[in-house]
Each structure stands twice: as C-alpha cells, then as structure tokens.
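ok so heres the complex, four chains, lmk if somethin looks off
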Amino acid sequence: MTRYAFSVNAELCIGCSSCGMACKNQYNLDPGMVWRKLYPLSEEIYPHKDRAFYSLACNHCSQPACLEGCPVGAYTQREDGIVVHNEDVCIGCRNCLRNCPFGAPRYNEEEGHVEKCSMCWQRIDEGLLPACVQACPTNALTLVDLDVDDVSSTVQYPPGFPYRPDLEPSTRFVLPVAPKIVRRDV
Amino acid sequence: MQEKHGSGNKNIQQTLGNKVSRRDFLKMMTAVGAIAALPGNGLLRRGPGASVMPSTGYEGKDAYQVFHNACPRNCYDTCGMLSYVKDGVLKFVEGDPASTFTRGGLCVKGYSYPRSVYSPDRIKYPMKQEGRGTGNWVRISWDEALDTIAKKILELKEQDGSLLGLGMTKYSGNFGITHYGVEGMMSSLGYTTRFVGTPCWPAGIDAQNFDMGNMWCNDPEDMVHSKYIIIWGANPSINSIHSMKYINEAKRRGAKVLVIDPIFTQTAAKANEYWQIKPGADGALALGMARHLLDKKLEDKAWLEENGEGYSEFASYLRREITVDWAAEQSGIPAERIKQITEEFASVKPATIWLGYGLQRHTNGGAMVRAIDAFVAMTGNIGKVGGGARYGHLFTWGFNYNALVQSAPEGSIGYTGVTGPMGEFDTGQGGNAATYTDRAFNINKIAQEILDAKEPPVRMLYVANKNVLSQDFDRNKIIEAFKKLDLIVVADLFFNPTVEQADIVLPTTTLFEDWTVNVSYWHYWMSINEQAIAPMYETKSDIEIASALSAKINSLKAGSCTFPENIDPKEMMIKEFNDGIYSLFGINSWEDLKNGAHKAKLVSSASWSDNKFGTPSGKYEFKSAIAEEYGHSALVKYKEPREAYASYRLLTPHSMYGLHSQFQNLDWMLDYNPEPLAYIHPKLAREKGLVDGDTVRVYNKTGEVQLKVSVNDIVPADTILMYEAWYGQNNPFNVNILVDDESSDMGKYKTGAPGVAIHDQFAEIEKA
Amino acid sequence: MDTLLELPLILFTLLTQLAVGLAVFAALRQWVTVEGPSTRTRNEWIAILALIGVGVIAAFFHLGKPLGAIRMLANLGTAWLSREILTFAIFGALAAISLYMVYTKAPNGRLLKLTALVGLLAVFTTGMAYTGKALDAINNLLPLVFFMLTVFTLGPAVAAYFVEEKAHALLTSILFPTLLASLVVRFVVPFIWLSGNAVMNATGQNFLASPLHWLHLAALLAGLFFVRSGKNIPAWLPIVLLVGELLGRIAFFVLVVNSGANLGGVY
Amino acid sequence: MSDFIQSIQQLSAFFFASDAKGMKTAYSELAKIHPAPAVDDWSSVEFSFNRLFVGPRALLAPPYASIYLDNDPNRVMNESTMQIRQFYGLLGLVSPWLNKIPDDHIALELDALWQIETALINSASPQLSDMREYLLEHLQLWVPKFRQRVLSIDDIHPAIHHIMDLLQQTLTTALQDAE
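and the predicted structre for the whole thing:
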C-alpha cells in the first residue's frame, strides 16, 4: 500500500518561499490565492521572530473533516491518501473552511468555489514530485510514503500545529534548532 | 476520480458565459465551416493546423513543449530552467533537473516568471514622451524611434567631433552573454562615454586579485567536504538558496558552521553559532583571528613557506599591531569566542570561509576581504577541496562576446586619457595601445559624473538592463543630473522610475523570447536559453535593437556603425561559443545544452589546487606591489571604517523577493511581501516609542523615506535594516534614496572604478 | 471571517430558528388548549412559511454557486449540512401543509406536532452542522444549545403577536426560564473558553471584548426584567429580543476563531 | 453596408489606432453615423488613449477580455484568451499577431464581429448566426466592465468616453436584435 504525506523539516527549512511560489506557478493561481505558504513559528516555540517556519498546505488527513462535512461531495480521497477537491462540484458553501483546523481550503470569492492543495496528484501519477517538493532547495519539504518510509524520527503534532488525532493529518515534522548566539553589547 | 483538477477549471460557459454550453460549443466546432476572411482591420484567414483547445490547470507533461532557459538575473545561482509552452503560450516554469546544483528547483522569484511575461503592464511599443516626466506618451514606430536616436548621435558627432557626448549605462538586468551587444552597439558607433565599474562586488574582486592574482572560488558543491564553514557576510538562505544544501550536508557530516553577520539572518539561524559583528569591523576580527593563529602556532607553516609571499612581514605586523583583545573590542565579539573558534577552524582540514559581497561594501571593504583571505591562507586551506576563501569567479565566462567586440567606424575620434577595464567582465580592453578609447566614468557616481562632464558634456544617455533611478545612488542628485541631458533612451521591460524620466522608451524581450547562454559567477554550470515563445508586442532583444540601429544610422550616413545590420539572435548566440568553452565543459556543440545544463570539467573542485597563483610572484601575496600601485597598503593591514554621519547604522541588503528592482513589482510577489518594512530592535523601538506597524521617517543627509517598522531582535539596537526593493508604480519606496555615493576602497584595478560603501550608511529614525 | 460574507447564514439560522420556535408554540397551544382556526393562527403560519422562505433565500446568497444548491443533498451519509437541508425541506413542506390545513379546515393536531418536531430536528441538524472542527470553541454541543435557546426565546416571544392575551401566560411560563438559562449559559461560556486552548481562549477574549456579546446579554436581561409569569409580554419586547439574538448570532459567526488562523502559534 | 456594420468596423479601427491620426479617422467616420462631440486637440486624446490601453506606464484599462473575465487582472494570454482564439479558429480566422497581441484585444474581437456580420449579409447561415450571438454575448460580458473601468478614471478625454458609450450602445442594440 501507499500512503503519501508531506514531510516538513523545519531544521532544514530556510524560509525561502520557493514552495509556495512553485505552487502558484504550477497552477497559475489567481492573485491573492495561496495554497501553500510558510507559517513563521511564534517566539514561544522558536526563540527568534521570523526565523523558523512550517511550510503548510493541505495535510491530506486520514480522516478528512473537509470531506466528511462537504454537503456536495466535492472531496474525494484516493487510495494513496491524497484528498482531492473538485472545483467543478464545489458550490462554495465553505463548510470545509469551518471544518479544517489547518486552514487548508481557501475560498476564491470571484470564482465562488473553494480551492486547495492537490498534492499534485497528476504529477505523482506521472512519476513526478509535487511542484512544491521539487522546488525545495534543501529537502526540507519532501514527499514520504508513510507505509514504506521510516518516519520514526518525525513528529505528527509539533508545537505550532493543531493537535488533532481525530483527523490524523498525514504531514510529519522535524523541529527547528536554534544556534548559539553571540551578540555584541549596544 | 474526477477527470481534471487544478486551479481555474473555468469552463467555457463560465468564462464566456453564453447560453451555449461547453459541449454544444465543441459540437459547433465540427459543424461550422470557415467564413471568407475579409480584408479588414485585423483577422486573417486561418491556415491549416491543429485545432486549439483551451487548457485548464496542469495537463500532464506530454501536453507541453519544453524549452531550456536560463535565469539571467544577477544572482549566484543562475538557475537553468525548463519552460512549459502550450499553443505558443508559456504556462509554467521549473528548474532544470540536469543541474546537480539547482536540482530542478528555482526560487521564489524564478517561479514568478510567467507573471512578468504576461503582465498587461509590460512595455509593448517604442514610445516617446512629450515632455520628460509629464506622462504624455505617444506610440512611435521602431523606425521613428531609431531615426530620432540615430539623428541625435549624428548630431553629437557633428558638433563634438566625437561621440563622447553619448553616454551608456548598463548593468545586471540581464546577464545573458549576448546582452553585451549593448556595449557592442556603442563600440560599433565609435568611442563613447561608458559608465564603468560595478556597484556590486568590486572591492572584493580587487582584494582577491591582489592576494591571489584572480577572483576564483572553489565549486560550491565541494562544501560538503568542508569540516568547518564560516559564512562571513553572506546570506545564502535568500541569495543563493541552492548552496544551502551543501552547507546542510557538511553539517550533517559533522562540520561546524559559523555565521558572521551584523544581522541574525536566516542563514545564521541554520548555523551552529552566530556572531553579531559590528559592521566594518570584519577586518579587525580577521586580523585578531590571524594573530591568535600565531599565538597558538596553528598556522600552516609548510604551506606558507612554499606559497606565501610577504608572509613574514605580515606575521610581524600582526605581532606588532594586532591583539585578540583589540579585535574583540573592535568587532564586539568576545575574545574567548574568537580564540576558541580560531583554534577549532585551524584544527581541521579542509575548512573554508565564504565571503559575501555585503562585507566589502564599505570604505574599508577591500582591506577587510584581504584580511579574511589572509586568515584562510594562514590555515593552509587555499587550494584545497572543501577549503578556500570563496568569493566568486569568472572562470567559465570565456565566451567570444561576439556582439560586444565591434570595432569603431573608421576615423572615429575618442578619448585619449588613460582608462582601465570597462567592468569586471572586460578581459581585453584595459591598457591596450589604441590611439583612442572610450571615456570611462564611474558607474557608481553617475549623477556627479554627468554633472561634472565637460569637453564634451554628456548630452545623450542610453540605458539598458538597468533601473538607474531605483538602483543607483543619491537619487536626488541623479534627477538633477538628468536635467543636463538632451536625450534619454531607456530599453526595458516595465515602466519604472527611470523610464518615467526618459524621452524614448524601447520595449525589450523577456528571457523566454530571446536566445542566449548563461553561466554563473559562483557555480560551474552553463545553461542555454532557447527562445520558448515569440516576442510579445513589438519587443526586441538588445542585439536586435543594436542591429536595427546600425541599419538606420548607416542609411542616414553610410559608415556610421559597424554592428551587423541583419542578425538572427540564435546565430548570435551560437557565435558566442568557442573551442575553449567546448573543452572546458566537455561538449561537442552548443546543441548538447539543449538536453540540459552542463558543468565545467574541473581539474579539481578547488581553485588554485596547483598553488600556481596569478600574482606577479606566482605566490599568495600577503604583500602586493599592485595593491600599492593602486594606492592601497601593499601589506594586508587594518583599515579604519567610515566615520558615522548619523545616529544609527543603515543596512540595505538584498531582499529575497526581488533582484534589485526586478520581481518585487509583480502581483504574486506582493502576495508574499506586500510592503517595505524597517526592522528595528525592541530596545530602539522603546527609545523611540515605536511599536510594530508604526509608520516612521528614516532620513539622512541624502534623503528621506517613510515606511512601517517591524520590531525584531534580528537586528542590533544601533542598526536600521531595510531591504532593497522597487515596489512598482504606486509605492515610491526606495532604499537608495538614503545611500550616498561614497566609494569603497577598491575596485579600480579590475573593474575600472571602485565600488560603493552601500553598508557604510547612517540615518535617523522618527515616528512619522 | 468577513461579517458581510457571513450575513446570509446569520439570517438563515436566525429566521429559520424563529420559524421553528413559532411552529413549536403553535403546536403547543394546540396541545394544551383547543385553538380553532383564526386570522391570527393563519397569520402565524404565513409568518412561519415566510420566515423559512426568506431564510432559505438568504442562504442561497451564502453560496459561491447558488445554482448548485440542490446538490447539497449529495452527502447525507456524513455531512450534517446535507441532513440540515433535507430536514429543512421536510419542515418547509410540513409547514406549507399545516398552513393549508389551517386555512381550509380545523388544524390537525398531529400534523402540527409533527411539523414542530421536524422543525426541532432541523434545528438539531443546524446545531450539528455548525460544530466546525476548525472552530475549537464551538466544536461541541454549544451550537445546538445556543440555537435551541434561540428557538425557545424567540418562539414564545414572537408568538405573543399571534395569540390572544390570555395565552401569554403559557408563553411566559416557558420564555422566563429560557431567558434565565440563556443568560447564564451565554454569560458563563466565554469564561470557560478562556481556560481552553489558545484558539478557544482567543474566542473567549473576542467575546468579552465585543459589544455584540454584551448587548446580546443586555437584551436577555431586559427580557428577564420585563417578563413575568402570568403577565403579558410587552409589544416591544420581542423586537428587543430579536435584535439581541441577531447581535448574538453575528458574534457567533464572526468572533469564533478558526484554528487555522493560529498556525505557527502555540495551541 | 449598414450603419451597424460600419460602426463595428470603425470602432475596431479606433482601438487599433497607433496614433492620433488613426484615432481621428475612425472617430470622424463614426461621427457620420452617430453624432459625436467635436475634438479640438487630438494629441490629448492620444495621451489618454495610451494611458488607458497602450502604456508604457501600467495600463489603467487593459483592452483585453481575459482581464475582466478570468478573475486575474494582471495576466494576459489567460484561459479565456485561448477560448477566443479557438472561437476565431471555428470561423476559420486567425490573428496576424498570434502570440504577440492577446487574441482577445477589443479591436480583434470587434473585427471578428465585423467579419461575421459581413458574411451574414451574403449567407444567412444559422450556425453563423449562433456564432454571432455567442460573440455578442461574450462581448457583453466584459465590455461593460471595461467601459466602467475607463469611466472611473480621472482626466480621460471625453472623446474616449464617447467611444466607450458608443461601443456599449452598439453592442447592446445588436444583442437585443439578436434576441
């Protein structure tokens, strides 16, 4: 079996935003529309402002709340775990926005539908990596197969990310590390 | 599983909104025959060919034509790219997977490229402005534009007897090799006034030339072998993102990484240790570290004996004048840390230092680079795989510069004074024995040079690949200087503050509409840039403009220009290649690059691996006679930093969302970085009564800007940080309003003019 | 979330809950007293049907693609929103039949009871549909509690317009305890949120800082002050309570913090 | 040729104009059919025209359909552009500026309409009538927004307001006739 997931290694992430822009480029997203972006960790979690990030899009949950609550069945889940949203079926009721604790579905007001990360399933089916993963210059963002790859050193619910075992988000995390800092007196 | 997915599943019904549904529409496609096209305003009878289908989202890799391109921006990474084209329209871009350096990735800027190609705001036609700055533009034909330009050139020649009244300024808007055709266009007209040098990295170039006889860095990919890495004044996390994986890998293999920077950068956050150095004190710190090597007898004596010219004199200078405590005091780094790290660095091999371009943008920048080079040399890490004092290289730039190398028309009169090289990429012109040369003005003092120019004054300025009003220094003075000019011609992609001051604007092609070839000044890969789409509107590439101008001016007065009058951009690109390039890269033909980027076949990933240096002595020169010839200390020595002229240090480094004035103006970039910010430390914020989001005035003797503050301890309390950026039409923000044109110490030797002390600036800050 | 964007749902939930409230009390009156068809009861059922109609029309404006509304029945298996649409459709149909019956012959007690019951079921589905999993503060039974309190506040209050004064006693006997319960629940809940996780805490703070919340409580307090068992309901009071519930409902839709807004922060 | 067909042709010519002279010619031809305000300074019309539709500064009212239809105000050659190209293809037409000027430039769309109208004079093909209606409806979807955008901008020469009004009026009338 295959169970695809994103792995987000905040120790390696350099905050370059290439992942988010690669996504916009791949799908020609409307201005203002962002499927993946960097979330800076608050200073309680990492001691320096704007210096550690989680790159997040859809977490392709095993128990997707978006899918469960969608009245029109716009969401489907593939056997490999990818949660796919169909914009043509979506009527823009935004119930999924109320149900996704990770803020993944985005409402496109002009189009009247919700959009979200598709894990680039067409690319995966062609043997390619998702656009964001291919873009990551430091391998901080990777595609893993939870049924095959060893993810024992990763965390499923790190600080800065909602603890929602009821949804079983598939994303795995490695936490950031702060350097020793020598400041001068001013 | 639904059939399709992705953004913009806007079907025909939705976008065209007709009663006819998508299916009916498609049915119609087979049903309706052609109508006879009439000789009207536009549409023609369509010839045979495949029907065109609208596309939605990602359609699978087979749906696209794929071209190889190369990002030509002034950047370490110079990424090979793939562009995906359907029905002649660029759909999306990717990194070239053939390059191990970029590994199929681009950066946040690279991925925004389709937005610039298809921005409705591109400059589309040649236009002239009736009254500079009035905004009263009329469309003119290429013929009329070139006619106006040509006639002005002929007039200058007539009046002055030479073309020195014609000035040209160009820098790094597009580093594609064929873009040297802009310089070629000038040469082919005669001897002109050139703004030479570089605002970027000249002090460091000279420093490394004094020390080693060239600027030549190791292959960045060999940093994985480093056991100790100091990143000194560089921020690859935003400026060379593809280098970070090698640093990470070295770290994973046990290397220690130290970042030395006035700012706690994203790169610093990834290090083992970060030192918040006082700007301008890098030389003092390096000399202190060198002194500690002596104290602990950690220098590589064998290497120094064999390869170090003037080393003993340098060692006695260190013993005489430098102490670790003094270095600690100057730099703000505790002596204990200096000592420990120095010992750690010297105890492993290979160890390397990456010297960023930031640290040499000071009045003592070249001297500081020499001090750091010296420290690396003393540890015996020069010429070692995984070692080296890495700064940059031009090792792979040995093209023909076919478009550049043009002879002046017969009988041309030029400048008779002494000139040096015309920029860092100029390998041949400096010091040759020609009767006449171009007149060289310092590119970094464009305003002052225009204001001071006499016999003849500069009366016409040609600007290409450059946004002078946004990127050059002391903007207010530039506006004054421009008033002296009769004709300003700007060739560009977008309407920017320089175009606003132009008399004529010429529309240029994007990289996807042009043929060229690109290499990096950091890694060792070469990428071809194929024409992926037809040039939009009436845009032309720089060399097409040169050739059209040549035809025009020769038609007005035969023999006025030697630039070939009929060129094919692809042929011009092919002419850039030579056997040297082919053998360096191990390819048989430029066509090999159509399969992906190629890397130079290096004898060693290390520069100077044979210890044969390019200096007069053939050794590493701690004491350089050439340095002395150019007015510097022959011996590597401490040089005092610039005196502060206002209360706070002002640092204006590169932004990750733009490259100089490119990219940040695109709407996608505004989604990520909507407005400029001044970063200040919480302590300074408290003193000034400022909180996040307050609007402030930042001002100094050169000018004033207003922007919001972000309170953040990534900056020291005596420093204001503002990233460089041009935000586009409606945001007047520009950090260079606050940067004066004070020169850095070095640059004249190899680039023709010194650099600019961009980071030796100071300012006041107040709540607006 | 944008208030304007949420306005259709604010109206939909409020108006349909008022309709259910009226239906419940119409049925209740049929049950405890025998009430023949009269202009007043006719008007009441017209009002019920009109409220459902306006509420549903308002809900259409909530959709990005209103023409696809019918497809909302597609996921009865797991989506409470689908079930909500279905039960409201049945409720609407029953209300229409009830109106027809009230008009033509004696109201059928069983039918009215069934209509009221289905109405309550519909509110139950609404309560379930609004327990957003991203909305930590209300990812529980609170929406159901809030909505039912609205039903039993607005139902008896607005019914006062449709009944003879002698029936007010029945209405107040339910309205008074409801108001008391509502006031206590709505006063206490934000403080409970404060002790929850960061997202709930932020929601609690939003409520405590919002005039919407306090005006809602003030309306309830006014109700408690002027509603006395056995006494008449002043004609202005239902308006005050309606406005209070409206403000409270706006608060419910715009002040509850979405968990996704805190990514990178402490949860 | 009918006034209507003539109007379409000259409106197209106006938006195709590359200088004041071209604008003046088309404007004068239109004035023969529809009364138009007199213009004494054609260069100020041209400055307005360029600020709105040509450049070099960012366009105030880009004359491309996709800008108004595709929910992406900052990209040309977008999906609906390609659909219009397909539509031209169905007519057996192709833009001479293929991939150089977006196919949905107002002047090109009006030219297509003019070509259909002219063809319909000779043959009353029902399919062609459908195509005509289709194109009219498509224009009606974005031209009002385009016109509004132009009208919302300060200091635009009244001659251009007149053209925008005339364009709107001509399309509306044609659409009413079609239905």
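quick notes: The CA atoms of residues 12 and 23 of chain B lie 9 Å apart. thats all i got rn
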